[in-house]
Description:
The chain contains 20 helices and two strands. By secondary structure, the protein is mostly helical. The model has no long low-confidence stretch (mean pLDDT 86).
Amino acid sequence: MNDFVFQVTDSIDHIIRSIPLFKVEFALCIGFLLSIACTLIFDKYWKQSSFFITILTIISAFIILLTQHDYTNHGFYGMLTVDKTSFFARVFISLGLFVSTIFLQQHFANRDFKKRKGDLYSILLAAGIGLNLFSMTTHWLMAFIAIEMVSICSYILVGYFSENKKQAEAAMKYALFGSACSAVMLYGLSLIYGFTGDLNFASARHIQGLIAAPEVMVSIAILFVFTGIGFKLSFVPFHLWAPDVYEGAPTPVTAFLSTVPKIAAIILMARLATAWISTPFYFSELTFLFISIVSIVTMLAGNLIALRQTDIKRMMAYSSIGHTGFLMMAIIGYSNGQQDILFFYILVYTLMNLASFAFIDVLEQKLGSTQISSYTGLGKKLPLIFTCFSLVGISLIGLPPTAGFVGKLLVFSSIFEIYQSAGDQIFLWLLIVGALTSVISLFYYFKIPLYSFLKANKEDEAVISEDNKINIMLVIGVVLTVLVVLFGIFPTLIINHLF
């Protein structure tokens, strides 16, 4: 009896000591509840109350997050880890949530939508909690809970706006595919727990358990687990949901799905690679080989299929898949001690993607279409939008003087450095495919300036809706474009502050 009381007391003390690690997420939880309350009560009197509560919550959580800079600790029995990796990941997640919230508010500001818009902001905050937990853990149980939190929120965001059969089909496909991947991942985790008796993938006990278990069964379990992570990252072959969902969902939701969840998923994959690839056992080779092959195949598939797209959102979907492959290549550099390169590229990718979808949404509101052909001859009528959009496209390709060029150059340099020391041919293939797909991407990103500036609209039938109000999304897109160019010319402004 005394032992039981001691254990309970010790557990309570440990949880109390761990609470300070959770204060950022606790702030988001409070904001989540306040947002729901505003939606139910105050939105009747002031329609923007839930929006402003959400914005204030994200800003407050970010300010609290800044106090955890240069702070390292573990809590809740190893389920949460606060370190520089989780700090920078949550900074980028906060940026993505902030911009996505404004995108949603602006997208529906002048639209007659019957459902309550305030519900969307609470869903975004709930997704933010899951994403933060996602990036803070090396524990499979916490990772699975976080994946499910983010997935459910994503299903709701996509399905909430279904207004026709195509959108409803995209939402259904997303939910069914995600549910199947989650089930497969959970089965893999049950096998891993049976082999190891420990769910912390960075612990010595976990690794020893994998070493002692049958190789075939461990390989199957690991591949099952990668299925769930692959769904969030949308790498090949778990990318099939992305094009339809990106096209069918409202553009702000597409911007969120293509950017923010990937930050957290990449961080989890990077932690896993660091913990496992460094071990001198067969499953470390399996993990490395899996990441390398998936990176190569995903870069090729995403960029080659993007060439044939005529809808800008579907094109960006396959572009996002291609960039996932490139991020997987950056993970290999991260596992070899070059963390700053991965974080620089994640930041650049976030800025580029959010800017792209800001311009896509502005053009969709003006033209009523997301077909690339609808941009024909509009470069002179909308010079600011298409100039900035073209610059972002140049950065996504990886050409100077943009941050995309610096990011890709750093990733290529890190992989080449590893190739020189290790001599493994797989690194050479990564370099070749990475360079080749960057060239391929030139052909589909070039469609933006090609149609807008170099092609004339002979019929001159393009109808542009006029709006004298300042378009906040356009302003955000321009600011993000300026940052992309600025960090391309002066990359040390960021790199010197990463790790």
